[in-house]
Design goal:
- By secondary structure, this protein is mainly beta.
- Among the domains are: about 90 residues, no CATH class; about 60 residues, no CATH class; about 70 residues, Beta Barrel (OB fold (Dihydrolipoamide Acetyltransferase, E2P)), CATH 2.40.50; about 90 residues, no CATH class; about 80 residues, no CATH class; about 55 residues; about 110 residues, no CATH class.
- The strands form 14 sheets. It has a six-stranded mixed β-sheet. A five-stranded mixed β-sheet has the order 8-11-12-9-10. A five-stranded antiparallel β-sheet has the order 15-14-13-16-17, with no helix packed on it.
- It is globular.
């Protein structure tokens, strides 16, 4: 039970501080919130407007507080932000504080109240650094302590201030008051002042001056300011004493007996009525004991072992367990690396045990193009982790500087939020020893324990896959207790991805050689990972120009050393090295009369070796013979045995045949494509990773990517040839912005049928139309219903029924009887292209969503055969074109 005795020996005062203590997305929503140590203090002080961030959304917790910043804080605390902002300057009191300086009113107020003083030479030093002693003095005076009576001047002033700060409860553990004070610790001192008791003096005595120093004599000791004993305070308790926040921030409330996102006992602060809208921050209690589970723990009820060592009662299973914020119904199976925080009740019995279990994931996308509404709520980015997109405010520990694309991050996810996260430490080196049974390995002289059973992580933690020795280098990603969350192999001297090829075709040219023998050559058509196509000649191994049985390097015996069936559609490396092979006389297999031949190197004839990924790469052969894959631009993961993840760096190589030619295309970051069961599909990942670096797709036919929404499409409603000129035909085109115009279309590119077309404009300013890359919208089929779910593409000749439009959602039926339900048309442009003058057609124009709704209204003139054409993006229809509206005869 790792760390137990060490923690216990520290007698509660110094319980291990864990990096996962962040409790949720900061209410202040600062971009540097991960650097804030005192998160609750920052949240509360920001919520009551005493502290604020920069115009760039930063809190700057590590910057040193200046004297003028401190003056403003005190004024805001004593007067409230609204009144403090109305302060006027009573005059120039210090030579270095101009009357129009932003801080002049606050400095003047604090100086007049005896809270701050100058340096004795007439200067205030507004930008000077403030020590913890100086800020503590200001806060004590704000609480009612008299600086003269308490001897906050003279040679012993610092000691007196420190003593009173500790007694008043505003001293922050771990700070050195004589050092310059950070904004982070200043926030904590101000926060603790909120709950400190106000004081007063029944007798302030007499003030005399000795050697220029004012000294108070005969003063009474400071005593707490009392209030009605039945009056409840900020924490809903009636203690009969007035705290600072009860006097100056009466709307600030603290609710105890709460829990934080991880399930720890906690208190929640509200500013205003106790409601979710007014929630400011939730702060967890400090655990009485912290246990980190190591490889020696075998009992599933580890907490029972605490009974003998702590004298506490055994924990009752299912009552106070929590794992990653979710209650556990039974004694959980604790795993190596789990952090167990134990909280004791008043009777010294175990009140709660909270288990935190991180997994290692990878950030696959960071989008900083934030909607205005989200930006107002503090969102600075949309971050995709493990295939799920989160607002940055929903990621506890988020740091805009370090949460970058492809970065690994330790996370705990619960209820749609990342309730705890951090960027783990990375250690790189070769593995000198490993112990599979104990799940340990040693890198550069340090032994590390690997977490147990974290199958959800993005990197493998199976030690059987780790190679010991200097030939391999690994990166270990460590949690905050130095346990290994993930192991990543660093690319070594093995075959690089540039040495790997997809075999499109293997063939032989068979002719007649000299003396009647055979002259056979073997060839291969290869595709590199960058899409480059090459053809090479292979070592023929046609020994002595005889009909022979050939044994190749892999020991395969056959009449041909290379066949299309053996190599086409596979990943290989090639070699032009010296090689010795054996051939058998015709009609024999192994044994008998043989011929041995050595093939020389450097003759520009190559051997093929099927690639197994080597030490640096893993290959997932996803060809099941019964599975098709649907790739979209935003595909982030697929499950083929295990979950594979795709990101903006994933490279796609698509290889297909176009007649007798090879057609190869490449893409990075995403494609739109449906494969077939006969296609070859490979996922290539770095060793131990599930993040796909390369997707290889091979097909016996040409691979066509699905066309997604194309803003350059135009619609042709009337395919009849109109005015014909020299090399052109005039046709009316309808654009996605709702406009239309009659233009000259190049004669060879005129539309033969009504529909959508892509277009370009040639040097003669003629439009050239092409429907080759215009795809009909794909639809997902479930229980014979066809429901639009973000698919992109076009629909033509789609029929609309009378009840087809509801709240901006449209249902249409195509000629193939596919019903497309609930297409969002609320933001679409509407174009009326139907022939209003034709017999039987509705004579009015319908060119808006409202007009379309009115047309279908029960009280509207009766119409039928309402047909539409739609160009639809993933967000909904971009343009809706009405092509036919038949009027119903009276």
């Amino acid at each position: 039970m790792r760390n137990l005795k060490r923690v216990l020996s520290m007698a509660l005062a110094s319980v291990m501080v864990l990096g996962m203590m962040v409790v949720g997305a900061s209410a202040a929503d600062f971009s540097d919130q991960a650097e804030i140590k005192n998160t609750t203090a920052a949240d509360v002080m920001t919520a009551i407007d005493v502290l604020e961030g920069t115009d760039k959304g930063q809190f700057l917790p590590n910057e040193i507080l200046t004297r003028e910043q401190a003056a403003k804080i005190i004024c805001y605390m004593l007067m409230g932000p609204e009144n403090a902002e109305k302060l006027g300057n009573s005059g120039t009191m210090f030579t270095d504080v101009a009357a129009d300086r932003w801080s002049a009113p606050y400095i003047s107020y604090c100086a007049n109240m005896g809270i701050l003083a100058g340096d004795g030479t007439g200067k205030f030093l507004p930008e000077g650094q403030l020590t913890g002693h100086a800020f503590a003095k200001m806060l004590l005076v704000a609480l009612g302590y008299d600086a003269t009576i308490q001897n906050y001047t003279g040679t012993a002033w610092a000691i007196n201030v420190a003593t009173d700060a500790v007694n008043a409860g505003i001293f922050v553990n771990g700070t050195v008051l004589s050092d310059p004070l950070s904004r982070d610790n200043a926030a904590q001192m101000a926060f603790q002042t909120l709950t400190a008791d106000m004081v007063k003096y029944s007798n302030k005595g007499t003030t005399i001056t000795i050697n220029g120093i004012e000294v108070a004599t005969g003063a009474s000791a400071p005593e707490a300011v009392t209030v009605d004993k039945d009056e409840k305070g900020y924490d809903d308790k009636a203690d009969g004493v007035q705290q600072f926040c009860e006097k100056y921030f009466s709307d600030l409330k603290k609710v105890v007996n709460d829990t934080d996102d991880l399930g720890r006992p906690a208190a929640t602060w509200y500013y205003g009525n106790v409601s979710d809208d007014n929630k400011v921050a939730t702060s967890a209690e400090t655990a009485d004991y912290t246990v980190v589970i190591d490889e020696n723990v075998t009992s599933t009820d580890v907490l029972a072992k605490l009974k003998d060592e702590t004298g506490n009662k055994k924990l009752t299973a299912g009552e106070v367990y929590a794992l990653n914020g979710a209650e556990a119904d039974s004694v959980m199976d604790l795993k190596t690396g789990d952090v167990v925080e134990i909280f004791l009740g008043d009777d010294n019995a175990i009140e709660a045990a909270v288990v935190s279990r991180y997994s290692l994931e990878q950030i696959t996308n960071v989008d900083t193009d934030v909607d205005d509404d989200d930006a107002e709520d503090g969102v600075v980015a949309y971050v995709t982790i493990d295939g799920t997109e989160y607002n940055s405010t929903d990621i506890a520990g988020f740091n805009a500087d370090t949460y970058e694309e492809d970065a690994y991050v330790a996370v705990i996810v619960n209820d749609g939020k990342v309730i705890a996260s951090y960027i783990p430490e990375a250690v790189e080196g070769s593995v000198s020893t490993k112990n599979v049974s104990k799940n340990t390995l040693t890198v550069d002289g340090t032994k590390y324990t690997v977490v147990d059973g974290y199958s959800a992580g993005v990197l493998d933690t199976t030690l059987t896959n780790v190679t010991v020795g200097k030939d391999s280098s690994y990166i270990l990603y460590l949690d905050n207790n130095d346990y290994v969350l993930g192991i990543e192999l660093v690319e070594g001297a093995d075959a690089t991805i540039d040495d790997v090829y997809y075999v499109a075709l293997v063939w032989k040219n068979e002719g007649t050689g000299s003396y009647g023998g055979k002259d056979t050559t073997y060839h291969a058509q290869l595709v590199a990972m960058d899409g480059t196509v090459s053809e090479i000649e292979l070592e023929s191994r046609d020994l002595a120009n005889k009909d022979t049985v050939i044994e190749n390097q892999a020991g395969k015996v056959g009449t041909d050393p290379y066949t299309n069936a053996d190599y086409a559609g596979k990943l290989v490396t090639i070699s032009d090295k010296k090689w010795t092979g054996t051939a058998y006389n015709e009609g024999q297999s192994t044994g008998g009369s043989t011929t041995t031949t050595t093939y020389k190197a450097g003759n520009e004839k190559y051997d093929l070796t099927v690639w197994d990924g080597g030490k640096d790469w893993d290959i997932k052969d996803a060809n099941t013979g019964s599975t098709t894959f649907e790739f979209t631009k935003n595909t982030t993961r697929m499950t083929v045995g295990k979950t594979y993840r795709f990101n903006s760096s994933t490279e796609y190589v698509m290889i297909g045949e176009s007649g007798s030619d090879l057609a190869v295309s490449t893409a990075t970051g995403g494609i739109s494509l449906n494969t077939t069961t006969s296609d070859k599909v490979y996922f290539i990942t770095a060793d131990g990773s599930s993040t796909v670096k390369y997707v290889i797709i091979g097909s016996a036919s040409e691979i066509d990517q699905k066309t997604e929404y194309n803003e350059d499409l135009v619609f042709v409603a009337d395919a009849d040839k109109n005015e014909v000129g020299d090399g052109y035909v005039m046709q009316t085109l309808y654009f996605v912005d709702g406009s239309s115009k009659t233009v000259a279309v190049a004669e060879d590119y005129t539309a033969d049928t009504a529909g959508f077309y892509a277009y370009t404009i040639n040097d003669d300013d003629y439009y050239e139309l092409d429907d080759a890359d215009v795809d009909t919208m794909d639809i997902k089929v479930a229980s014979s219903k066809y429901i639009w779910d973000g698919e992109e593409g076009v629909l033509v000749n789609a029929k609309m029924e009378a009840n087809a439009l509801y709240d901006g959602l449209l249902t249409v039926t195509t000629t193939d009887s596919h019903k497309y339900e609930d297409i969002d048309v609320s933001g679409a442009k509407f174009v009326d292209a139907h022939d209003k003058d034709a017999d039987g057609q509705y004579e009015k124009s319908v060119s808006s969503l409202k007009a379309l709704a009115d047309l279908l209204d029960a009280d509207a003139p009766k119409v039928e055969n309402v047909k539409l054409a739609l160009n639809v993006s993933e967000d909904g229809a971009v343009v809706v074109i009405l092509t036919s509206i038949e009027a119903v005869a009276d």
